[in-house]
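User: Predict the complex.
Assistant: Input components as received:
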Amino acid sequence: MSDILLKYMKLGYQYLVNHVLAFLLIPTAIAVAVEILRSSPARWNSFAIDPIHILFTSFLAVFIATVYFMSKPRSIYLVDYACYKPPVTCRVPFSTFMEHSRLILKDNPKSVDFQMRILERSGLGEETCLPPAIHYIPPTPTMDAARGEAETVIFSSIDSLMKSTGLKPKQIDILIVNCSLFSPTPSLSAMIVNKYKLRSNIKSYNLSGMGCSAGLISIDLARDLLQIHPNSNALVISTEIITPNYYKGSERAMLLPNCLFRMGGAAILLSNKRRDRSLAKYKLVHVVRTHKGADDKAYKCVYEQEDPQGKVGINLSKDLMVIAGEALKSNITTIGPLVLPASEQLLFLFTLIGRKIFNPKWKPYIPDFKQAFEHFCIHAGGRAVIDELQKNLQLSAEHVEASRMTLHRFGNTSSSSLWYELGYIEAKGRMKKGDRVWQIAFGSGFKCNSAVWKCNRTIKTTSDGPWQDCIHTYPVHIPEIVKI
Amino acid sequence: MEEAKCSRVKVESILSVVSGKPTEPGKVHKLSMLDRAMGSHTIHIVFYYASNPFLDGPMPSDLGNLRITLSELLDEYPYVTGRLTCEPDNGEWLIKFNDAGVRMLQATVDATIDEWLGSADGVEERDLTAWEEMPNDPSFWSPFRVQINKFKCGGLALGLSCTHMHTDLTSATMLFKAWSEVHRRQPPTHPPIFDLPPPPTPTPPPPTPSPLPTTPTKMATATLKFSPAAVDKCLSQAPADATPFDALAALFWRRVAAQAPTKRSLSICVDSRDPSQHAPAVPYAYFGNALKFSTLTDDLLSGGLGQVAGHIHRHVAGMKKEEFSSEINATGGMYGGAALTCFNAEHMAEAESGRGIMYDAEFKKGERPVHVSYSVGNVGREGLIMVMPAAEGGRGRTVTATLPEEQVAELCRDQVILDFEPTMILCGRRS
């Protein structure tokens, strides 16, 4: 009984605070209207209405309106996006991965066991894919193979996007590519300009080295550029090319990426054109970037280096989850006031004041982000990341389902994983008009970046996309430990 | 006397090919006693094609196109992508369907197909199906290996090698044929069956034979192609109802026995999948070992070609009617271990044309294999004679003889055999 009472009290409080303006203005408006109606028509004539007053008032109104509309940032729309679906011939079942591992690392059985333990607890499924060069015993990561993978992933994604949006190559104004670990000369963006014969005055950018959160950095860059360039669109390509980054050594901390990173990529079309407004899927509301690189521990926690044998790999420090938690807290502190309803912000403020003034032992209030968002896309960096965020943000299993299922089906595809997750939610038919989505990505640096989108139109489930042949089998139960 | 020369086959790379769909986890398959008895042998089949059928396809490389259809094929054969494991408590061998895939090797050959068929011998041909012996822990060892060998002339040899524990020559051929059907987008003619009802209790293994000689004998292989006319000539000396197998087995037995008088018995190996029978013991699509072995003793083997052929014919008929219980040598060495073994492949000849079903494995429509080579590994010193149907159909047969080196050399010079004008290929460089 008291539970139900508490629940209704809470609901009442939220409704009151979130609509406080309505609660204040409506009675005031009614009172004024009643007063006007009650007063006699004679009183009306006593209001000396001067034509000059009217002119000035209208000029002021127009002036204020102009200033408001001119200074309002342009709305940025996400017209559509396409994710790469790797061919089934690139599939890597656990048993094949472990077999290759044992054959290649035959002198390091401890490293092989370590990889097996990681894989068993990773949350990956049996359908994740590695590029063809990594299927060889031993892998053959040549420059040619890396370019081949880049071409396959990027061109397929762009072709899908062009098919679904009707975009023509000559219409692309801005091109941004982010791929952290493969940066050839000429760049991947030049590769795209060459393949699709894009215009010579295209604004192209190639972001490399920025880690798994670079996808949202690209979106942020696209947004800033679209503020300056009116009536334009931007093609953003987020991918990670796995071929050149296979770690050939046996240091355990550096073997983790081999176990988790898989092939994937996404192509996203953003636009500030008026005519794309009705067709676009999402509107970009906020992008919040947090960089913890000033702290030495955060800077070194994902570090590319040579192992004692001289083999290059990415070293993941043991403090990774703690640092990720800190970065998340920073990001939430910035994004909270932008997205949380007034009720949550007040509660947080009261608890903060209370802790400072009255009693430091009060539990800090964790704002309920479920009131601010309908959908969450947490970067599928690994099972631990998703577990940690689910705990910190007090999310239900359904909220993190998109992230977990993306990790299971596609593995850690780095910066493009957010788009696979969004694709999952759409494929399940859960995306309705007005729904708000929060994309959170972590990456080396250490960075935590967030993007907030608002759904522009209810999205019907389609027959294409990377999930089309398997969505009906999801969600699956992922056991704690999979026996290989 | 040729010294060990550098092989003309160079393996460029090794990778694994997996099925397109994940296997259902947790399934296992127990190997039968016959499977384990065959375990010491390995199977090597090479399909030679005049041109590379994988150059056409959506992928830029032939290996890419090959992998697409091989993956699709493996969806239906979780048995082939699984791994062997030995149960610790009772020592039983199982195949765990763990989805690990098959090993794929790419190699180049420094010769044209014609040069190769004229000059290579059995030992060099083994390089087209490079084999790795099973290690003590087979859980990460692939029992099936596919090798794609490219010739200088643009021709291709596809090699399939596997343990005889998993499959026999017939079902290995059917696997390959199914792959060619998947590649040509044809519905499968024989979708595989993996589980059979348990066979009747086999005969208890014979008392341990005398220990085999410690010096391993160097074996060699020769392939002799007999035209339909030659086979007819041979059959003319045999009773009317004799099959080409009966006549050729009798011919070869007599010639080998003439050189090596110590040979006293002949073991016949028959497949239980005979489609000509009204109710075959084993369905044609069964994937695994379905062989019967039975020995003929000396008294039935003396006499002229016709008499021996007649005895063999009656014995084969009896084996099909289950008059003789199948022999299993639990210590292994079923082929050539205790006696010269003759493998009967009459069931692999198509009913109407007489052409071997292996020659129907077309990856490109209208392009049949130029030749299909069969070879068995670890044959015992008594030897193995395989009588396989030929490419041209009718009663033509291709005989592959695996015997100790000197006996093979003698056989290829034997006048009685040469009277039938066989075409000799893959016999090494002979004048």
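Chain B has a mean pLDDT of 86.
Let me know if you want any component modeled separately.
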